[in-house]
Structures
1.
Amino acid sequence: MNPRISQVQHPAPMMPYPANIRQLSDIELLRQANEARNAVLASGLQRLLAGFAGWMQRRRAEAELRALTDRELADIGLTRAEIPFVLAGDMPARGVEAPKAAAAPAAANDRFRKRAAA
């Protein structure tokens, strides 16, 4: 192709769409835009309602835990100070852990480890 020929004179190499894609009409484009907008609004509303329902559930659970006596809280392994952490899910799991075996100290005159007594 002659480099002096501009795109206006020879527009074939630059096509706006690939050959296998049809150009959308204005009505179809508007319909697709409306569907996308409605989907975004619906998902946002669903997230908002789910967040509100979760908040209400946490509020009810907090009211029930605060209504318990200290003895009842101790029976389930909680204190009043731990209630917000339990509801937020920040409480570490408390399990009965086996005590770790302490290493026996080496003898002071242990020549094998080259720690002879003074």
Note: Residues 26-67 form the longest helix (42 residues).
2.
Amino acid sequence: MRTHFTRRLLGALAVVSTLALTATACGASDGDADAGSGPKDVKAALAKGGKVTVWAWEPTLKKVAEDFEKKYPKVDVELVNAGTGDKQYTALQNAISAGSGAPDVAQIEYYALGQFAIAHSVENLAPLGASGLDKTFTPGPWNAVSEDKAVYALPMDSGPMALFYNKKVFDKHGVKVPTTWDEYVEAARALHKADPKIFITNDTGDAGATTSLIWQAGGRPYKSGGTQVSIDFGDAGTKKYTDTWQKLLDEKLVAPVSSWSNEWYKGLGDGSLATLSIGAWMPANFASGVASASGDWRVAPLPQWTKGDKASAENGGSSLAVPDGTKNQELAYAFIEFATTGAGATSRVAQGAFPATTADLGSKAFLEKPFPYFGGQQANKIFAESANNVGAGWSYLPYQVYANSVFNDTVGKAYVSPKPLADGLKSWQDVSVKYGKDQGFTVAE
């Protein structure tokens, strides 16, 4: 039976017009696997066979599902695209709360996983064998899916950050590729002075991009342990970010263009947007969405807040979890492990996914793969180094989906008014603190 707090949390963690978490009925206790389950039961489930329903939007899983069915002929994998991100989370939580209609496996982004874990809406996979996979994955993704001895999902991919830059634009104007964020500001000034149509990057306020750069700067604004939460955007790492980014905003050196818009793609193609600081999953989007600029772009390590450092952070990435109450827990876990490790992981990497596994990340074939789009550059070497230098100790709020939904109502004002970015982050903190307390969390500032 659920605890009173869990029932309250499921009913109260409603992301306005985004994610509805409603009170749930009785089920398996706190997401723990049955005492008798484990690797032997997983093998037995594979031998017996059955159907596994997977809710996911990631296209590389189609080939993985086909390979899994070939290896285990008695298993039928049904892939369902129930929507991306928040749309799927709404449908997923509604199904879990109703006690019927939930899939056996669900794709959940790292930033959203904590919300499902604390509500016991996903199973603890440790008793099924996941606890022995900690060295299989790189630190960033593994930290995102595990807490203490519990493992709430297995990492599908990762998004270590890098600097994508338009070499043609930098060369034309004689500007050096920045290695520090101070140099980045200078490069922004030099490019915009040389051609007022050129901006160093775009930014209209994005929660994921902001928190990733704070992460790289050493900021750790969130701390979370069960129902105990703290939020502090006044730490030294956050200040490094705001001090630097405020210069870019004040001097109008970033384009007021929304990412993933038609204008954004146009800017990447015509050189008016000169760089992107983003996750290593971006190359496929360049190749498909900005084909006209093939050969113009290159990849470099993320600029550093302190000269000589090699710090990085994650930006994006997803996991595969087993929703609470599934009747096919062992079979679901078998598919998840196949899809995220060994042959399944290698298959996804071959299709363009960025690996979360140390074996794929360190393979010669992966590291030496040339990228025609980037002039034949072996960009994976830069991405792999970034993955190995992701800062430890980062955590998201157990209601990060809600927090991100109000980012533009708070921090976003710094992009359209004289309000300083630091004040915007403080407003975001205040709203997030109030929301957390309203839902029954103990929140410190």
Note: The first helix runs from residue 4 to 12.
